[in-house]
Design brief:
Blueprint lengths: L7 H46 L4 H78 L9 H15 L12 H6 L21 H5 L27 H43 L1
Helix pairs in contact: 1-2, 2-3
Length: 274
């Protein structure tokens, strides 16, 4: 069962969430301060009315007006500075989220293309398998079978990205633009005890079979009559060869019978002419 590996994208997403939570807390504090400032303004109004009622002098009213204007100006400056700081902190987060969304779109697009290629490969391999089943028991080999098998294997290899040359071809400028984030590539690992490969595939690269990497012991060469091939496989092979021999004998016998019939007809015709 594959385990999900923590990537750099997960770390960036966690940092973005943490910064968002901090900014929300700061906004709550600002809202609380604004409420308190409004309450202070109301109290100041009430005090001003009380002073007016108590025949406050013009000089005191002028002083209160100057103080209120100074307080309003200071609050406006504080509000503007906080907005600028929030905008500066949110700008890199916004850019990171935009880049992540574009990368996610590209990944989904590549996955859709890969699914289409795999479907085409499946259809091709299915046709090859059905064609091989129909050829069982016949004497004439199909000359295009090897080419079809080769094309099917190469198709699967291209769909899974078996060619290591296509991996990691991004330039340094592109990597810097993507903040050094590499796309996640998942490889499927299969454990195979034994694998039998015909001579055609042995002479070519194993990558044409869709194999990215091999590990373990590799025995290349003829393994018949050396105890390396299972007995069941040999018995099945002997049965197939015996059937082919019997069909070949039947065909030869039928050809001989036809020749005898033709010779007999020829002699009968000669007798009639005499």
């Amino acid at each position: 069962m594959p385990f999900k590996k923590q990537t750099q994208e997960d770390t960036v997403l966690g940092n973005v969430q943490q910064k968002t939570a901090d900014l929300e807390r700061q906004l709550k504090r600002i809202n609380t301060l604004e409420v308190e400032i409004k309450r202070i303004g109301q109290i100041e109004k009430q005090l001003g009315l009380m002073k007016l009622k108590s025949n406050e002098s013009k000089k005191d009213r002028e002083i209160n007006r100057i103080v209120q204007e100074a307080v309003r100006a200071e609050l406006g400056a504080i509000r503007r500075s906080m907005k600028e700081e929030l905008r500066a902190e949110l700008e890199p987060i916004r850019r990171s989220m935009h880049e992540m969304s574009s990368r996610l779109y590209q990944t989904e697009k590549r996955l859709a293309e890969t699914e289409k290629e795999l479907q085409v490969c499946k259809d091709l391999l299915k046709g090859i398998v059905e064609g091989s089943k129909t050829r069982e028991g016949t004497l004439e080999p199909d000359g295009g079978y090897a080419e079809q098998l080769q094309s099917g294997n190469s198709c699967v290899g291209e769909a899974y990205g078996s060619d290591s040359g296509e991996i990691g071809q991004k330039s340094s400028a592109e990597q810097a633009g993507m903040n050094n984030h590499r796309p996640i590539i998942i490889y499927h690992q299969f454990k195979v005890d034994k694998m039998y490969v015909d001579q055609f595939d042995q002479e070519n690269s194993f990558r044409n079979l869709g194999i990215r990497e091999l590990s373990g012991n590799l025995n290349i060469g003829t393994t018949f009559e050396k105890g390396m091939v299972p007995a069941e496989f040999l018995e099945e092979w002997e049965k197939v060869t015996q059937k082919l021999k019997e069909k070949k004998e039947k065909l030869n016998q039928s050809e001989e019978d036809e020749k005898k019939m033709d010779n007999k007809k020829g002699t009968d015709n000669e007798k009639e002419t005499e």
